[in-house]
Amino acid sequence: MKHILLSCLLLLALCATAPAAPVERQTFRVVAPEGWTVTAVPDVGEGVVLVAPDKSVSVTIVTAASGTMTPEQLAADYEQKLHAARVAQNGNYYGLKGMAGDLPLEVCLWTFDGMHGVASIVGRTGHPALQGIVDSLEFYK
After folding, report:
1. Which of 16, 47, 82, 104 could form a disulfide with 128 if both were Cys (CB 3.0 to 4.6 A apart)?
2. May I ask the CATH architecture of the domain 19-139?
3. What is the pLDDT of residues 104-117, one digit of tens each?
């Protein structure tokens, strides 16, 4: 899963900051770089938002039950919700790009075991700490 996330998010930079304590959720674990703000996603029990100290980039990670939607239907739904274009697909993994207001948006959507996950980056998509965040991401079944 990590290799697909890496290609979906087009993150090539190496992590430049030391890791802080891990953030644990029921369906995933991620390590936020030192100094980044970590908050829960409002109204979503299985989601976090990580924000860089300079606020140049944020990373949102959310998992949820897929219900009866197929991976293709989920991708189309997120394309419409986010006004984003599909730029990559590999099995049940989809890469989307768009704008969040005037900021660049990159999204990776994937499905697994009746669940789906969304990782979105808003802002400076080439931030050097992003690679470390993606590398630390672990999903639980």
Report:
1. 16
2. 3-Layer(aba) Sandwich (3.40)
3. 999 999 888 888 99
The runs of H, that is alpha helices, within the chain are 2-9, 71-82, 130-136
Tokens of 55: 């606020």
Residue type (1 letter), 127: H
Angle at 83 between CA 129 and CA 96, to 5 degrees: 45
Please give the Cα distance from 122 to 98 (Å, whole number): 10
Q: Evaluate if residue 14 carries a pLDDT over 60.
A: no
Give this prediction's pTM.
0.81
CA neighbours closer than 13 Å in the CB half-sphere of residue 6: 10
Type and span of the H or E element at 107 = strand 103-112
